[in-house]
Structures are given as C-alpha cells and as structure tokens.
Amino acid sequence: MRGGHRLGRSPRPRLGRRFGWLWAAYGTSALGTWLAFGAFELIAVRVLHAGPAEVAALAAVGAAVGAAVAVPLGPWVEFRRKRPVLIAMDLVRCAALLSIPAAFAAGVLTFLQLLLVSVVVAAADITFRAASGAYLKTLLPAEDLLVANARFESTAWTTTIVGPPLGGAAIGLLGPVATVAADAVSYLLSALGIRATGGHEPPPAPRKAQRMRARDLLDGWRYILADATLRPLFFNTALFNGLVMAAQPLLAVLMLGRLGFTPWQYGLAFAAPSIGGLFGARLARPLVSRFGSHRVLVASGVLRALWPVGLAFLGPGSGGLLLVMGVELGLIFCCGVFNPVYAAHRLERTATDRVARTLSAWAVTTKASTALLTAVWGVLGSVLGPRAAIGLAGALVLATPLLLPRRPAAALPAAPEAAPHRA
Fold first, then answer.
1. Do 264 and 123 have their domain in common?
2. Has residue 7 got a pLDDT over 60?
3. First vs last Cα of the chain: how many Å apart?
4. Ramachandran region of residue 405, left (φ > 0), alpha (ψ -120 to 50) or beta?
5. The CATH number of the domain where 145 resides is what?
6. In total, how many domains does the chain have?
7. pLDDT at position 23 over 70
8. What is the reported pTM?
9. Integer Cα distance of 80 and 204 in angstroms
10. Is the Cβ–Cβ distance between 139 and 18 less than 8 Å?
11. Are residues 271 and 123 part of one domain?
C-alpha cells in the first residue's frame, strides 16, 4: 500500500485537460445511449407495428451482423491515428441515427432501415471502443490507466441510473423517435469533445505489408490466445457477459408475465441497483492500492459470479422485488470493481501496436457470444421454462471463475514508444 493512502481515501490524481475532454465526450455519448434505451424496439412496435419475431431480430441480428462487419475494422484502425478514427465513428453513428427521425418525418421509415442502422451503429461502437482504448494508452502513463477506467466505469453507471428515467419521460412526451435524435446529437457533441482534446498523438506502428491479407483479420485473436494472462480473461468475460445477458429476456418474461410485476417495478429493479456500480468503481483504485491488482481482479471476478443464480428463486410481490434488487445490487457492485481493474490490466498487458486489434477482437467476440447465448437461452426458456433456464445460466456462471488468471502476469518486455503527452 502506498504511504498515507487509506482504503477509500486516495487523493484524486489529475489526468490533464486532454483526458478531461475525452471523459466528457464519453459521458455525453453514454447519456445519449441510455436516453434512447429501448427506442428502436418501441419504434418497431408502435410506429411500424412489428411482431415479436421482428423485434427479436432487431436486437439479435443487428448486434451479430454489426460484429461481423467490425472484424476487418480492427486491423484497419491499428495502423491509423486513433483520434480521427474516434471522431469519424461518432459522426457515422450520428448520421445513421439522424436518418431515422428524417425518414419518420418524411413518412418513409421502414423496418429494414431500423435494422441497417442498428448494424451500422453496432459496427461503429466496436470500432470506437477499439480505437479509444489504443488512444487512451497513448494519452496516459500505465499507472494512471486504472484511475481513468474507474472514472469511465463510474460515468457509465451514473448514466445508467439517470438516462432511462429521463428517456422514458421524453418518450412519453415526444415519442421514441425524439430520443433517437437526442442520441444522435450526443454523438455529435462527443465528436466535438474528442476534437477538443488536441495535442500530439504518436504516429501509428508502420504496416509490414501494403495490403491487408485475410490472415490479418485474425491477428487480434492470435495475440489474445498466445498470452497466458489475456487468454483466460478473454474466455471469462465472454462467457460471463453472455450468460448474464442471455437470462435477461427470460427474466423479463417471468417478472412481467407469470409473476405480475408492473413495468415501473421492473424498471426500478434494475435502475436502482446501478448505484452499486458507482460505488464499486470508486473503490477499485483504493482496493488495488491496498491488495494489488491481481487479488482484486480475482476476488471481484469470483464474487460477481455468485449472484445471478439467486434470480432462479424469484417470487411474486415485494419480497420478489427486493430479491431482484438485492441480487442486482451485489452483482453490479462487484462488476463495478472488476471492470476498471480488468480494463486497465488488459491495456497494460497489450503491446501498444496491438491494442486496436486486440480490443476489436475482444468486443466482436463478446457481442457474438452474447447474441448466440441469448438465442440458445430463448430456446431453453421455451423448453424448460423461464425459471429453470435462468437457474441453469446462473449455475454455469458459477463456473466462470475457473477461467480467471491463477497467478499475477509476468511483465511484458519493454518496447520503445513515444512518451505520453499531458496537457
């Protein structure tokens, strides 16, 4: 433990003006995303009169195809300056989303357009995430990456708490198309914020071959699977996220259907516990200062796996509502600790000239595995019933800690690189 630091009372380091603009841009786009949460599904149902199969396809196919489209973008991003890529991805998302209110106003909005926009946004999300991780690594020294990721995590949970209620009110007053327009504007503001970071960005690594080859598309996966620390984390996060997300539609069916919870109770059950993520993210750095990143990573990774199985015991009434809120609070708190530690560890562990490809491969796999497991659990829910399928997902989540790294990672060999520039 560093001298003078007490748990939860570490001084707030200054990360500089450039990081401040990047953080503000992230918070703005995250708020816009949560304001428009569920807007596509509502537009499909209320405006285009889509059926259940079309709504399910909008959620699953858009993410899966978007992930496939993003596969070649990781290697492409690696050999370009990251700040222009970030701005471009924000503008692509802004333009794609603005096409929806424009088409709605002209009376030509179709389900196909919704699907295509969801694919474009999903692909741009993955590309932005890969480029932002690489850009952050050039912006800050390694010792500040945990602090930066903890601030992003805190912001993510704060916007999760604030965004859906505000978006719900906006949908009630103006309709779901208005929240899509607000989301588009948030990406425009994010692009302006990233542009305001300014400063010098180190040149990207030179490409060995002039043209991208088919085997280059797999570089990110090869790098992950060859590393003894990244490999277990990769499988752990893909399986954990996929199983937790796969149970959510079944939980909605169980709560809103058989158990008779109202929509506002369902929303409260997931919005209120998000405060746990905020507290968890704020504790991440002091916990690492006291116990070390490996211990915190493993402990929070084990603890977060213990909660989801509790949802199989959900019952009706206030007791059931409190059970869901308690489970979600514990789960989200542990994730709030785990996520910034894991994100910083992943960046530290990845060579600078491999970050974009690695993060892109990671995000593509996570989205694809979530889409696949959600489809599988939809079938299991029909065969076994929602409660049994939720219990099965929770039981499998209990095994995910077996995929966590068992020992601290060996240091990477030092590589010459430009020193990060601070404002």
1. no
2. no
3. 29
4. beta
5. 1.20.1250.20
6. 2
7. yes
8. 0.80
9. 6
10. yes
11. no
